[in-house]
Amino acid sequence: MTAFDVPLYRPGFGPAEIEAVTEVLRSGWLSAGPVTEDFEGKYAAALGVESAIAVSSGTAALHLAMLALDIGPGDEVVLPSLNFVSAAATVALSGATPVFADIAGPHDLCLAPEDAAARITPRTRAIVAMHYGGHAADLTALSRLARAHGLALIEDCAHAPVTDSAHGMLGTVGDIGCYSFFATKNLAMGEGGMVVARDPALRERIRRLRSHALTVSAKQRHRGGPSGYDVDALGLNYRSTEIACAIGRVQLDALPAAHARRRAAVLGYREQLAGLPGLTVPFATRPAEEGAHHLFAVLLPPGTDREALQDRLRAARVQSGVHYPPTHLFTAYRERYGLGPGLLPVTEDVMARQLSLPLYPDLGEAGVGRVAEAVSSAWRP
């Protein structure tokens, strides 16, 4: 499946996931049903919240947040450009304008509260805080900023499932928390996501919007409930599947141990790469116990030829990546919103030098050593 001895990511599926999927297939119920409900309950309990809503992807979770908050034409949403494009896309597809703000700096790749504050206008409706690499954004400052301006705070927790922090459990501090369970995430289901919300009315709205805003669910109809139904809002099919949620339940049970192995790998990287001249490791001053460690990001010295370094790593059969090209520099956003280089100087500087090294629970001490040796050998700043 891969040309690399050490890939950027390796999935951690085993007999338990296979058996869970087999049980669903034997049941004959494939769309959202009892397994989905059980997974939702277990995930909510892990977060310490009342309920959670399983959806088809992290993108679906973010889009439902926009729809549930009635964000639309004429509105603005402040968010970091340093993120996967899906966050900005859900704003734009809702008819609102994504307003990009800078990150805090080389040691903190999350949204800078002071820059977010400078981007707020009378049209701003919400702030999206993305917990980059599984490390918490400054939710204390961002919550204060949102309250001061009457804005919703949406937490993009794509990198941080069931992750505690100095601010609280990530996804439960803001108004809405959105999680991704894509194939490469810490909790991986292939495709999938989850939404939590503080306000019960908002939760109910999200739950109904994920299934066409039908007034009667498929489960209710299957169990002899009303055969007719009404639709009183414009919803979508963002339901999860029983197969995905069966995998999710197994992955959730294994998540604490998987996070511990990720932490061990990160500590190994920090120690073995410490002597490389000019290397910056974001978030390295934070306690390793805080954060989901979804990515191990490093920043190369200014002027380093990143592609050449990646070529040398590739020759050593070690994969690397870049997370992420800044959204405001993509063609669609430049042309639609008149954006371009110079808008976010910190983001642009950092992302010209960012490199992601392999990180997954089964990387182990030997894998960390192999990558660290390859990076040291390829290091020519």
UniProtKB/TrEMBL annotation:
The keyword Electron transport does not apply. It comes from the Bacteria. Pfam families: DegT_DnrJ_EryC1 (PF01041). Its cofactor is pyridoxal 5'-phosphate. Keywords: Aminotransferase, Pyridoxal phosphate, Transferase. The keyword Transmembrane helix does not apply. Belongs to the DegT/DnrJ/EryC1 family. L-glutamine:2-deoxy-scyllo-inosose/scyllo-inosose aminotransferase subfamily. This is Lipopolysaccharide biosynthesis protein. It comes from Streptomyces ambofaciens.
